[in-house]
Amino acid sequence: MTTVLIVDDEPQILRALQINLHAHGYTVVPAHNGTTALAAAQTQAIDVVVLDLGLPDMDGLDVIAGLRGWTEVPIIVLSARHGSHDKVEALDAGADDYVTKPFGLDELLARLRAATRRSGTQTAEPRVETAEFTVDLANKQVFRGGAPVRMTPTEWSLLELLVRNPGRLVSQQQLLTEVWGPAYAKETHYLRVYMAQLRRKLEHDPAAPVHLLTEAGMGYRFAP
User: Fold this and answer.
1) H/E element holding 18?
2) Dihedral sign, CA of 90, 115, 51, 154?
3) Residues 122-141: pLDDT tens digits?
4) Do the Cβ atoms of 159 and 119 come closer than 8 Å?
5) ∠ at Cα 155 (165, 131), nearest 5°?
6) CA distance 133 to 145
């Protein structure tokens, strides 16, 4: 059975979707806010997410970002926001589809079927642990010795890209392009500076790193 995580703070909609989707053969996991949704996605096998953007504790775009930190599960936005700007923002953030409220059940069922057909869901572990530190990809946090490590946005983006490719060489050009942008594809000194900062924060011996490795002249590699 396909498992659907439904994220909506309106009890009537949540209840109606639970009843109707269950009647059509889906297993439904309900969540009334973003925090509950992210926790559910980490602890249960979810096949598709139906997400409202207007949540009480965080914007739905933040939920999309949290999920996309570690999983490619299909996300269908179900929102009362009708503006084209809202749709573009959600799709750019990583949503796969966008349905506006009010909606027809037949349309939503068709979009669920399409999303699950297209899905080649690739899910990484939401928490990556090493002997020195832990990276929580879903919540964008890093811990060392149980204590949170403060990361700048650039440091986090660099670390996340490496951690999401464990054991693989990530080229200098890919890192520079994805973290800083295409205009910085040759600024290799940026990588040296920021990798040194990450090693100081995370490695036991920054001068002899065992997790954040340099492949001279080519790029960097994360060794779990």
Assistant:
1) helix 11-23
2) negative
3) 445 678 899 999 999 878 89
4) no
5) 60
6) 7
